[in-house]
Fold these 4 entries.
Entry 1:
Amino acid sequence: MIQIIEDFLPEPVAKSLSQSIYDTPENWWSTVYADGINPPIYLNNTLENRKIKNIYDTKVNESFIKSTGVVYRFKRSTEHVKGCSCYECSFRENYLKGKQFSDLLYGSMSMGNPVLFESFVSSYERGDFLNVHTDEKRGVAFVLNLTKDWKPEYGGLLTLLDNGDKMKSIFPKFNSLVLFKLGDEGVPHFVSEVSSRAPHARVAISGWFNDE
């Protein structure tokens, strides 16, 4: 079950949220690597970690070719301090945990008692990707696309697989909310690699709700 809601946020709110993401200092992000074998590793964007990143780039590339487990590389936010009032935490409290969003999940996704499991800001830059995985035993995934002036040829398309031979690619249109039901078995899906010619990062706020 998939639902796409365009113009989800009031336009001024969406523009402000998007700009806040692009204005975020470099040291706020972590680059997360998963090679399909070891637990994901989070590396802050420091000069000290540059050598380590090169090593993990090689590991991720090798695992991607071998199709070993869940393989990905992109930037994302991590846990914030208690009481944080940044744009991400404010959005989580004012929208994701609000009644309007709960009613949307209840009505559109047939959830009985949706509870936010995780949310984070993602930034897919040139060469970043997320290979096929299922996210089993989770309720409903959401992606709020906040990238302006994006084109399909830039990549970064969320693609869902059906019965292994049919694909549905979803363009990350600005201010569109994508909801899709995962369930116990999950749904095979991936994010295609962002082109080396993309002029800027593809950003979004993503996460999952469980039915409790």
Note: The two ends are 19 Å apart (CA to CA).
Entry 2:
Amino acid sequence: MDHSNGYDQLADDFAAIRAGSNIGVAAIREWAHAFKPGSSILDVGCGTGVPVTKTLLQEGMNICGVDASPNLVSLFRKNCPDVPVICEPAETSSFFNRTFDGVVAWGLLFLLSEQQQITVIQNVAGRLQSGGRFLFTAPSQNVEWNDVLTGLPSRSLGAKRYKALLNSCGFQRVEEFEDEGENHYYHATKQ
């Protein structure tokens, strides 16, 4: 089974697309400003590390990465050689068996089934310290579509469902916003 949802076979194509794009960088940078330098951040679905992990490193964060694609993890290691990374599906990852000040999942959750999304959010809640911050992207609508790169099904649970799920997992103050690429963000703080 391909836990990378088709991205392992298309790793080079994905790397080329993300390397040439600054979409999301300003949002990630702004999110990072809420943390003290040296804060521990987990990048779930880290891909190649470009641009999310690189941006967080520039902001002085200590990063760990998780991705299900061996090819993307290999590219991540080249782009971010000093950053710990593990090749595991987000829904079954040990997340390094530690807690973090923040977790980011840019462009990942909607690639997973509804149950896998729920599991990832629950696991993230269990790995965040009190006051920790979780930032992820998914459309605000409850919608299904085929991923542009892989052609595989993607699904957003919609804002109402994500907010309810986050609240049930101990998050408070869920905020939403969009970036210049019309990516919809959910920002939640753990109680």
Note: The longest strand covers residues 128-137.
Entry 3:
Amino acid sequence: AGIAVVSLLNSRRTPEKEVSAYLALIADGHAEDANKMVDPGASHDESLLLTDEALGAATSRITAVKVEDADVDGDDDSALVTATFRLDGERFEHTFSLNRGDKEYGLLDNWEITDSADNSLVSRVELSSTAFDSLTIGGQEVPLSGDGDRSSGFYETEQYVYFGVYDIAASSSRSKYLTPDTTSLQVDSSERVNSSKGAPDQTVTVSASPTQALKDLVLDKVKKETTDCTTPPNNMDSECPSAVQSRQI
């Protein structure tokens, strides 16, 4: 009876079950529990979107998950598990590597997904903009740090993000006057490279269009300058065109 119980419990502690549990957390929006299962290796500043709030606000998360049988090595200490899933109507595949940990109570199997960005279901995304010093992504405000002297004219940041589709919006400080041209971020494995070092998996540049409020503001400023530069004595100001800087205008 004891052997049968151990066998039953171990049938629920396979590499496939471990991968299924991890994918279920992501599918349900539980990013912080997924982080505990597989550490993507992101620093604190790069983890602003690895939260329940951000993943939960995604407009699309992984669905229709299917986990294949594990490919266990000859020593029975490591395994590869391939999973397929859908995201926003597209099909993707990801292979996880797992290691066997110490048996619990000397009897129960303990498989763990290897910690790494490449092994987790995250991508490293570089966000940049000439117009926004921060963006709202998945409902979370993400600051884009300047490059000091701003010689390149870009604000930018790198963030680790779970696979999904996220809304992009202007931060509250600039939303009145600027609208982002890019309003959606899809994170998946289609552009993924080795994210442990080197280039990011995905680069997104967000430009801006003026809102009507900004157009009205500029027009009001132009009208005021036009009036000032055609009305003595304001027309003598250095900001006015030289052609109207006359006392007999």
Note: The longest strand covers residues 90-100.
Entry 4:
Amino acid sequence: PPLGIMVEVPAVAIAPDLFTQAAFFSIGSNDLTQYVTASSRDDSRVATLNDPSHPAVLRLIGQVARFGREAKIPVSLCGDMASEPKHLKALIEAGLTSLSVAPARVARVKAALAEI
């Protein structure tokens, strides 16, 4: 099967051109957000900083999506952000065209996308 790469750390999102051998990129929103914002969803002392809509996170997502389009490498996004309707408009604006969501959330995401 084709081998892709998870984009979960800022180093990959900042320099995706170093990974052009990958057949696809899958942005892991949970880990990318945690590393970019220096926070953790599991640590109540810093959990409020863990915001996937932070401009730095969205810029990195957009950068990877743009690089993928230019290099003809498919890019998708997985993680909690993909399942949250409040983030969908920003993800579309960042250039994403593919999301990976849990089966139980597909209907909710499709309905939210239809409204955008």
Note: Residues 78 and 100 are 5 Å apart (CA to CA).
